[in-house]
Specification:
With 382 residues, the protein is an alpha+beta fold. It is built from ten helices and 15 strands. The protein folds into three domains: 77 residues, no CATH class; 166 residues, no CATH class; 93 residues, no CATH class. A hairpin with a 7-residue loop joins strand 10 and strand 11.
């Protein structure tokens, strides 16, 4: 086990959390693991009560560098504590996210959900997702990524509010005017949050008690919620994903958003410039900050070199230079007139004025995306 020295500059509680996580990861038996896990959970509970987000995040950051497998073990325990309530004698509760991928020529809606739409959404969740005895509370706000809870303790606080509402059979009213303004992107994600409360040990979701798969549940969900989400997102194209526990749904959305953003870019440019995909060129390039951090894709017309728009494809989790990401990107770009793949390592450069990423052109130069002067100024692609 790696020892934590004073020179590591970790606080006392951070060092203790790291030490316990390393011990849990190195455990040689289930009984030993249970003992270490109880100690980790006790410390995590204490840190949550003291709202010490920084300590939790510092421990994860340290382990991400020093011992990624132990980091995964600790992250799972912290996230589980943030998104679930299991300390009551007779009930369990979990925070779920209802995720949406959205693109539009116009501003993507966020903020307050009307009462009729909220009633429709509640009915669809209860009918098509939850186990028969589950209780539900939904927040009446459509969140953008900028408006999500800022830390683990804030996530648990939201769950506690929603769980209290679920027990009393009410939804949670939140004042969306208190949230920060949502960023403007052509392609973005939106969330609705809810809490599910069940009797101790009872199933949460339909696929736990009925003979259906999650894939079948998703198909039913998408079919029956299409009109509700269309009313919530006027003028938008959207794809709904399967609602699930907060961190699981968030990770799935993170993966799905990359391909969705590329497809949205193509549809958007074709619609705005009155062209077909075969008129477009995409340039794919790797971008480094000591290690490979992301790919950036610059879009232009075949007849002109100017980059019109760009999309960032970030690496997620354990993805690295050895992961065949370029093939995934090329697959999403199928149908374009030309795809150029650059192998030159590009620096992580941004516009000095607006902070937006710079994107590659076919000559391996970095440019600020600009639409033709005759077109109106448009939001950037996520």
């Amino acid at each position: 086990m790696k020892r934590i020295s004073a020179s590591s500059r970790l606080s006392r509680e951070t060092a203790k959390l790291v030490r316990l996580a390393l011990a849990l990861h190195a455990s040689g038996s289930q009984l030993e693991s249970l003992s270490w896990q109880q100690q980790v959970n006790k410390l995590i509970s204490s840190l949550f009560q003291k709202k010490q987000n920084e300590t939790l995040e510092q421990a994860l950051d340290y382990l991400w560098t020093e011992n990624p497998p132990a980091c995964d073990v600790l992250a799972q325990l912290i996230e589980s504590y943030a998104e679930s309530l299991v300390d009551a004698a007779d009930t369990d509760a979990v925070l779920i996210a209802i995720p949406l991928l959205v693109w539009s020529r116009y501003a993507i809606p966020t903020g307050q959900i009307s009462k009729p739409r909220l009633r429709e959404l509640r009915e669809q969740v209860m009918t098509h997702l939850l186990a028969s005895s589950a209780r539900l509370a939904i927040s009446d706000v459509l969140f953008s990524p900028d408006q999500l809870p800022r830390g683990f303790t804030e996530t648990r606080a939201l769950l506690q509010q929603l769980a209290q509402c679920a027990v009393s059979g009410e939804d949670l009213h939140m004042d969306s005017s208190e949230l920060i303004a949502a960023g403007e992107f052509v392609a973005d994600v939106r969330y609705v949050f809810a809490a599910v409360v069940v009797d101790k040990g009872a199933p949460l979701f339909r696929w736990q008690q009925d003979e259906i798969t999650q894939s079948e549940a998703l198909q039913t969900w998408q079919l029956h919620t299409k009109s509700t989400f269309a009313a919530m997102l006027p003028g938008c194209h959207f794809q709904s994903l399967l609602p699930n526990a907060f961190f699981s749904a968030w990770r799935k959305l993170e993966h799905e958003a990359r391909g969705f953003s590329l497809r949205a870019a193509i549809f958007y440019l074709c619609e705005m410039l009155n062209v077909v995909p075969g008129d477009l060129r995409a340039v794919i390039a790797p971008f480094y900050d000591q290690v490979l951090e992301e790919y950036r894709i610059g879009f232009s017309l075949l007849r002109t070199p100017q980059v019109l728009h760009g999309v960032v494809w970030p690496l997620i989790g354990e993805e690295s230079e050895e992961t065949d990401i370029v093939s995934q990107i090329e697959h999403e770009l199928g149908g374009l007139g030309k795809i150029v793949v650059l192998t030159t390592a590009m620096p992580m450069e941004f516009c000095d004025d607006c902070g937006s990423p710079l994107f590659p052109n076919a000559d391996a130069e970095l440019e600020h995306p600009e639409m033709p002067e005759s077109d109106k100024v448009m939001p950037q692609l996520h």
